[in-house]
Write a structure and sequence with these properties.
Number of strands: 4
Largest sheet: 4 strands, parallel
Strand content: 15-25%
Distance between the termini: 42 Å
Number of helices: 5
Structural class: alpha/beta
Oligomer: single chain
CATH class: Alpha Beta
Length: about 120
């Protein structure tokens, strides 16, 4: 398989044989989370934007996606919607800086049962 993106692996990555697609437009955040997750044994594949992340997702179908909500171009909400529209059972975990009611409202409007349940807790 020829991939049209760079797979960023971190030291110690892959012990659990679980892959996480990490998506954040801020390099420092990607690096900190990538190193931490790889220390826990995950294979981490990183993308710096939603468009690239969706291409990676379609090629590799990772079971876990950890994405920032606010990013230029395709944001995390749109990425979640596109992943779920594929019928994927991947777990999508959303992270962000300051949480606003608008971002919570947008996320809950995706009609994704796990997300709606977690926001109502």
């Amino acid at each position: 398989m020829v991939l049209d993106f760079e797979v960023m692996k971190y030291p110690g990555s892959g012990k659990l044989n679980k892959t996480i697609l990490l998506v954040d437009d801020e390099a420092d955040i990607r690096d900190i989370l990538g190193i931490t997750l790889s220390d826990f044994g995950y294979q981490v594949i990183a993308a710096d934007n939603g468009e690239k992340a969706f291409r990676i997702f379609c090629e590799l179908n990772p079971p876990i996606v950890l994405t920032d909500i606010k990013m230029p171009g395709m944001d995390g909400i749109t990425l979640l919607q596109k992943i779920k529209s594929q019928g994927s059972e991947a777990e999508v975990i959303m992270i962000t800086g300051p949480v606003t009611w608008i971002s919570l409202s947008e996320a809950s409007n995706t009609k994704h049962p796990d997300l709606s349940r977690s926001l109502s807790m």
